[in-house]
Amino acid sequence: MSSKHHHHPHKNLLLLMMGAVGVVFGDIGTSPLYALKVAVEASASHGGSLEPAVLGILSLITWALLIVVTLKYVMIIMRADNHGEGGVFALTALVLAKLGNHARARWLVIAAGALGASLFFGDSMITPAISVLSAVEGLNIIAPSLQPYIVPIALALISALFAVERFGTAKVGFVFGPIMVVWFAALSVLGLAEIAENPAVFAALNPLVAFHFLLDHQGVAIAILGAVVLSVTGGEALYADMGHFGLQPIRRAWIFLVFPALLLNYYGQGALLIRDPAALDNPFYRLAPEWALVPLLLLAFMATIIASQAVISGAFSIANQAVQLGYIPRIRIRHTSADEMGQVYVSKVNIILFCGVVLLVLTFRSSESLASAYGISVTGAMAIDTVLAAYCMMAIRGWNKAIFIPVFAILFAIDVFFLSANLFKFFDGGWLPVAVASVTLMVMIAWIRGRDRLLEARWRDAVPLKDFLSKLSAQSTQRVKGTGIFMVPHDDIVPMALLHNLKHNRVLHERVLLMRMQVDSIPYVEDDDRVHVTHLEHNFHSVIVKYGFMEEPDIPRALALLRVREFHFSLMEISFFIGKEKVVAREGTSWFFGLFILLHRMMLGATDYYKIPEDHAVELGGHISI
Asked: 467 versus 621: which is more confidently predicted?
């Protein structure tokens, strides 16, 4: 199957919109469960009348959704796609391809991309915890006696969610869309019913209401803005998941269904609070008539599970891209769908996220407390998206700088404003996603820097391939039947595994392929462009196998392409020689490179990672010091 089939161009727009509603909008779509409640409570600490506070916060939420999500992501940043793919790594790869060999600028972009991905991992822990907890807290309304069971029930749902991740979402994905459509329809109906009682709540559409509200509440404005951010969390998912559904289905689903449903529900909650301030204990569930509480609770359970699942799948996808781009060590990645190329499962990431989510639920025990930890990672990632997209649109796409420098400057200022507001939550729990992001970033930077030093060490002891081939005819090296394939990190040097084989076994195969894997700055590579062969002297051949940063290397498939186009060899006559070097520290090596050495020893072996048949693999070791 051609690699571009993952976009499913034959599916009609309605089906793609349904799929986007099920996968892309889960996080932002479950924000009404807690966002307005937390923001109004932050305002209540200032005292004063409730009605101006509710209208002010509704106005802030409205304009945050309009500017941050609709204008920035849906209308502008989603145009900065990398061959149809979105997300921080797609953007990073696009910018790096434009920068060329400017070392310092490349390092800045790589660090920004790694930071953005690290912040996403921090967010991936909080979203399932706060979403599931906020849904289960509806039990308080139905039966207050169930209060002690809220945390155990949330943990049971979370455990079930992570347990089924390994089966992939392809089998159950088709039901996500209809469930989320029902969810957004329920949001709209619940909101409209209350708005009909108090249509004056639409006064909040005026941006001046938000402006005057912040002026009148300067003492708690930072806390309120930190809570308003909760209404736009998940906005970056629109961009990150663009490759699965395309720009138009996501854009139309947002404009015609999701955005109106969110506004109607927020305004309904606002109208309810103005009419009945006692509903502040849980304004979302208080919107529903008593007979609808149990169905709404069950629907909220499903919506939050779907939202959490989408964020976890996003973390798997980010991990897969990080491996392909060389930002983290090789880890076991398993595709869970034969049709959807982006559907992957990463067991190590699944375990880390599960432990983190359980720890969050046990530590914070309520969505209200967890809201304090939420926001720093999201706003940080959004700011990075804005900077990279600004460079991409103006330097690569050629957008008019006179018009768009001020536009991006305003969008970045809003990101920084929201980020600053959330930094005040640091000691109330915001430290946790920052800690997760810091550890992830440290691992990435240690791996990238260490890998560069390892390549330098290989060069230091390397034998140039041209010199080796020129001397080969003069040597009495015995050639044996078959094809020897050596995995190489570079085209111009002789692989250590070949030198070890010559030294100890004193033979070479009659045909030698020097195979290098190359990850391009595009998400997918067509099979027609997959393998490139350069024929050298003495039946040596240099083979480059290209992959996109969204793909998983597959050596057997590359061999099948080589058999068809270049070499009519039998798979039985092939031997893979893989260098299994042990990296050791030189005297005085810093702990930073010590971390790289530890990661290098823990990473998945090349035989497993590249799916090389074990009965055809020969691993030859050696030591290399950095």
From this structure: 467
Domain region containing 490: 461-625
pLDDT at 5 over 80: no
CA distance 336 to 200: 50
Same domain for 438 and 468: no
**Residue given tokens 């159950």 in the structure block:** 172
Looking up tokens 């404005």 gives: 221
In a domain, 593, yes or no: yes
The whole-angstrom distance between residue 27's C-alpha and the CA centroid of its chain comes to 13
Tokens (6 digits) for 611: 């799916």
Q: Rounded to 10 degrees, what is the CA torsion of 449, 454, 455, 459?
A: 140
Q: What is the 8-class DSSP label of residue 71? A: I
Q: What is the mean pLDDT of the chain?
A: 86
Could you please report the per-residue DSSP string of 315-333? Answer: HHHHHHHHHHTTSS-----
Asked if 493 and 410 sit in the same domain, the reply is: no
Taking a C-beta distance cutoff of 8 angstroms, is the pair 180, 303 a contact?
Answer: yes
The answer to whether position 8 is within a domain reads no
Question: Do 471 and 445 share a structural domain?
Answer: no
Domain boundary among 415, 449, 483: 449
Same domain, yes or no, for 526 and 439?
Answer: no
C-alpha radius of gyration, the chain, whole number: 27
Phi-psi region of 124 (alpha: psi -120 to 50; beta: other; left: phi over 0): alpha
Are residues 356 and 387 both part of a single domain?
yes
What are the residues facing 617 on neighbouring strands?
576
Structure tokens at 237: 């998912």
DSSP helix, strand, coil percent of the chain (3-state; round to 5): 70, 10, 20
- Residue 340 — very low, low, confident or very high, per pLDDT cuts 50/70/90? low
**What does the pLDDT read at residue 474?**
61
Contacts of 123 (CB under 8 A, 6+ apart): 233, 311, 377, 378, 381, 433
- Segment (H or E) for 487: strand 478-487
| Residue 6 belongs to some domain of the structure | no
User: Does 4 fall in a domain?
Assistant: no
CATH number of domain containing 139: 1.20.1740.10
Q: Indicate if 206 and 266 belong to the same structural domain.
A: yes
Structure-block tokens of residue 394: 């103006």
Model confidence pLDDT, tens digit, residues 287-301: 999 999 999 999 999
User: Can you tell me the distance from the alpha carbon of 284 to that of 287, in angstroms, rounded to the nearest whole number?
Assistant: 6
Give SS3 for 619.
strand
Q: CB-hemisphere CA count at 13 Å for 451?
A: 17
φ, ψ at 302 (rounded to 5°) = -65, -40
- Provide the b/e sequence for 205-230 (b: ≥16 CB within 10 Å): eeeebbeebbeebeebbbbbbbbbbb
> How many domains does the chain divide into?
2
Report which DSSP code applies to 585: P
| Torsion of Cα atoms, 270 then 275 then 276 then 280, to 10° | 10
**pLDDT of the residue at 150:** 92
- Show the tokens assigned to 334: 């398993």
The Cα–Cα gap between 612 and 600 comes to: 20
Q: Are residues 334 and 402 in the same domain?
A: yes
* Alpha-carbon dihedral 50, 52, 55, 61, rounded to 10 degrees: -90
Is residue 313 domain-shared with residue 437, that is, in the same domain?
Answer: yes
Using the 3D structure, point to which of 449, 481, 505 is the last residue of a domain: 449
Burial of 56 (0-12, 13-18, 19+ CB in 10 A): buried
CA 585 to chain centre: 33
